[in-house]
Amino acid sequence: MRLGEIYKYMPTSTVGKVLDVREHDGKSWVLLDFTGLWYDSSLLVPADVSEYKEIKFKYRKTDFQTGLKSVEDLIKEREEVDISGFTPSGGG
Predict the structure, then answer these.
(1) N or C: which end of the chain has fewer CB atoms below 10 A?
(2) Angstrom distances, CA of residue 36 to CA of 33, 67, 79
């Protein structure tokens, strides 16, 4: 296995590009870019390039970027919530 090659994890059919390979306790582990998780290399098989979807991220603006709310604002929002129309339910 080489960095950049594309492999499929057979139990879940997860396909990803090899980012890193390590050995631990006699097992070889492979880091795939699709999930950012380590996989047992014995359960990986080479995958066709057509099965690989490149990871793309789209960032959204958050309150952190547009301006933080004060603690007072958060408390006020909490106090203004009207729960009179909610129906109680439970899982018991």
Answers:
(1) C
(2) 5, 31, 40
Length of the chain: 92
Helix (H) / strand (E) element for 18: namely strand 14-24
Residue 46 and residue 7: Cα distance in Å, rounded? 4
Segment (H or E) for 40: strand 38-40
Tokens, residue 37? 């998780």
Q: Are 57 and 17 in contact (CB under 8 A)?
A: no
pTM for the whole structure? 0.58
Torsion sign (Cα): 78, 83, 86, 92: positive
pLDDT of the chain, 92 residues: tens digit per residue: 899 999 999 999 999 999 999 998 899 999 999 888 999 999 999 999 899 887 766 655 555 555 666 677 767 766 666 667 777 766 65
